[in-house]
Amino acid sequence: MAAVDVVVSGVGVAVSGIAGPDDLLRRTPAGAQGDDPARRLTGKGLRYKDRATRLALCAGRDALADAGLLNDPGLTVPSETVGVVVSSNYGNVDTICDTVSTIAAETYVGLSPMALPATASNVIASWLAIWFRLRGANLTMCNGPTSGLDAVNWGRLLVLAGRVDRVLVVGVEPANAPVRHLVSGGRSNGDDDLRLFDGAAALLLESAAAARDRGVEALAELGPYARKADQPAAVASIRRTDPRPVDMWFGAGAGGPAGMTEQTSYDLTAYHGHCSGALGVLQCVAGTAWLSGHDRGAVLASADGDGSDAAAALLLTAGTRPGPAAGDRR
After folding, report:
1. What phi and psi values does residue 187 have, to the nearest 5 degrees?
2. Which of 22, 203, 211, 237 has an alpha carbon within 20 to 30 A of 292's alpha carbon?
């Protein structure tokens, strides 16, 4: 086995009806209501932030705090050591639609100069960096069904390349009228049986050495990642690289590891709706929550492009628990 280089040291979620990462494996009935997680944000500076950005800020804040990187004044580590990678396929489509409608009705003079920057595709990652003063590398993935797992892998690559010591990875999708219109293909009755994920999930990835230096617990360790033409090929590539038994599989349909039962396989889209770009990060957060309660184990996350794109897979394993050290997270 290759030495583990990157670990998960913090997780966070912002999903209505979900109290925390441990609840992600609890099936949420369709139409279930709960407190809106975006209401957790208070203070100035929220007026021109779309729903996806607000959800990402909530989940990102929880992941940073869980990793012990936030205190009252701000970050507990140098800001340039923390990067951001966001995965979202529909993120700010509502802002873009509103902007286009305003231009059509009033020309460009009807636009607010404060709202216009929010039409950029990287607005979510940018606001995460500004809000939490994360001055490291900043990326946005809009890569279809595999986007979430691709984002986790790109976060790992940034750490391995020495660009940063740690990366906040956030997967977020909003459920609003423009997104429903887009996902349903513009059908007027597209809302009848369409269940969309509305929320965000976040991981704090960190080099194993940086986590040890801070004396924090590694909740999970990142194993091999594969991107192939379809889900069976991606999973098979992972199994060839790391053949250890898989205790939990996140995926859908055929193509998972042999021996997986209903009790050990989860399709989070059936639990939380069509997750799109948030799916891979959501799977990794749920898997990390499960692994952090076990001394051993492996979780395989996978996302299929439904024949229209590639598929991706990523292995997570149980983290290590360091002895007492200065600056312990708890």
Report:
1. -70, 135
2. 237
Task: Compute the residue count for the chain.
Answer: 330
Helix, strand, or coil (residue 318): strand
For the entire predicted model, the pTM comes to 0.90
DSSP 215: T
Does residue 264 share a domain with residue 202? no
Q: Which residue has the higher pLDDT, 275 or 112?
A: 275
Domain-embedded: residue 32: no
Other CB atoms closer than 10 Å to residue 25's CB: what's the count?
15
Q: Tens digits of per-residue pLDDT, 306-315?
A: 666 789 999 9
d(CA 3, CA 311): 26
Q: Which of 196, 214, 232 is the last residue of a domain?
A: 214
Residue 316 makes CB contacts below 8 A (sequence gap 6+) with: 8, 220, 221, 222, 223, 284, 287, 288, 291, 298, 299, 300, 301
